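Bench notes, bay 3.
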Amino acid sequence: MKKKVLIMPAVMAFMTMILSGCQPLMVFDTKGPNAKTLSDTIIFSIIVMAFILLVVYVLFIFMLSKYRASKQPAGYEPPHEEGSTKLEITWTVIPIIIVTVLSIVTVFTTSKVEHQQTGYDNKKPLVIYASSSNWKWHFSYPEQNIETVNYVNIPTDRPIEFRLYSFGPITSFWIPQLAGQKYAMSDMVNKLHLAADVEGSYMGRNSNFSGEGFAQMEFETQAMSQDKFDKWVKDVKANEPKLTEAKFNKLLKTPFVGRESFSSTHLSFRPAPEMDMSKHGESHKNDSHNMDHMGDMKGMDMKGMDMSK
């Protein structure tokens, strides 16, 4: 038993040594307010769980030492011990408190990152439609009327609102250093808010396994000053071709492409599936009403038929 107790710290030390050679986790190297909020929540959860493990291991070693096997006469019978109500209440209440605290923190964090970041209330967000297809990302800037493939440029110190959808299977849009992940699905649009405080290059990816080209669904996010961003937009408008429907259809069918830029977007001929729940519900009601009406018409036709012919 003592050997097993000694082996556990050795294994943990070995794993720590191996993992220390890996690159630092990008979720902890945050460059934006939403990413910082999520990172703080993850760190808080890790500290809570590490404290729980520490308490469990200390109690484990204490129990092994205090109640280890000892030499007793062959006819020895241990004394009868009654259960402790206080202990039972304690080990039931403590997990409830832990889960409650973690739940409250998680709900608060999730609600906070779902909205525009604090400090950017007076700034108009830059809207970018990010759509996925096998196995690439399309970024449409309706305000600037430009589009890029497999890379996206954003200005720093300005809120960004990504509107996510997919031309294929469900994917997950994720830029670890700037925000958490959110799903991109067909027939609906999800919104993701973020902002970059520091200029730089940040890699984004599809974090949801969606098929054979999943590993290649990466894109670069370049955060730059507003002046540099405006200059880049002018360069794209002046030097890049317009995106035609034929070219866009070819892009959708091509599995893997490099970085491309266009001086117009696909939104004019292939608009995003902006979801209106009220209209969606009315559509279903109309469909149901039409189906009932069709059923009545079929019933009338059947009654009016002369089955003897």
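Next record in the batch:
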Amino acid sequence: MAVGTVRFPAMPSIDGIRLGTAMAGIKKPNRRDLVVIEIPEGASVAGTFTRNAFCAAPVHLAKANLSTCVQAGASPRYLLINTGNANAGTGEAGMEDARSCCTELGRLAGVDPEAVLPFSTGVIGESLPMQSLLSGLPQALASLDEDGWMQAAEGILTTDTRPKGATVSVEIEGQTVTINGIGKGSGMIQPNMATMLAFVTTNATVAQNPLTEWLQSGVRRSFNSITVDSDTSTNDACMLVSTGRGPRVESEEAVRRFRLALDEVLIDLAQQVVRDGEGATKFVTLEVSEARTYEEARNVAFTVAHSPLVKTALYASDANWGRILAAVGRAPVEDFDVERVRIDLGEIRLVENGGRATGYTEEAGSAVMAEDDITIRIRLGRGKAETTVWTSDLSHDYVSINADYRS
């Protein structure tokens, strides 16, 4: 189940990037579950990673290997992703398995193990099936293809119902700059840096420091602005690769164009995650404005987005506006003046002057709640700060999917 129809886009090739997949049988047979992304020498690579204290062994190793490459003035050469097993909560044995994966891929590809960044997603607390994983590496390398975007997007899925991709092309310095991204995520989504996994590449030439800064900024407005179930994964990672095969992004106008395009790709992928949230039937945009600070706006937005009562009312198409009112009222906001708060459901005013809006009718509210895409606007009447957060409803299927996840 997913909200709306989102087709996988035609992804232009990016000079220097190749993607390969294999059916390694890590959890289930006859499905792509191992992905290799090849990066050219001289590329810049930036990453953001989960802040979960129990972050997975591949997260630790990917961060360490990326740091080693950057300090040496070198480029990571391969991203290695497996699904079906998170290699999280596995202690030192899990770290040794992650190192072994990098060592073997490095041997096969002729690069140092530190030039390989590993990523895993799937069941937590189980050891990687190393024989299956390592035996799939030659197949993944043999299938490397500059047009392998769809196959790679399919190869990183877990409970997702469809592959997720986004692409934007813009003209910079008279040349075409393309930004391609693929991602996965459906449950355990309230990222504390990024979605479960996302890999974004561009042919533009961007130095390491600005690449990192722009990724972090874009992640804040995209993957860090979504929630399905308020759970932060142990394995989150979002990587951005600049191959250096295209124009330099240095002038003020070039930077503006590039960052707008990057944000567009990141937000597109983040919204696709919410639309494909486990059991989701509604895609909900929460716009909070007139807050004193940005953090205050986000606190209100996420308090509403995480409310089980609000989320189940959305699923039932029940215009129980009091649940939204109550969630806003319990958000951590100091000196809240409820008389100044206005809440709209779509174009229908729900709340003003401390209570139900005079012109509100149950019929009008129910009509909006029956839609697949719903916007809730909350104006706090306290300042000029604002934010937008995207979330989904909470259905019976969410419980069923997670009750059966390890079956």
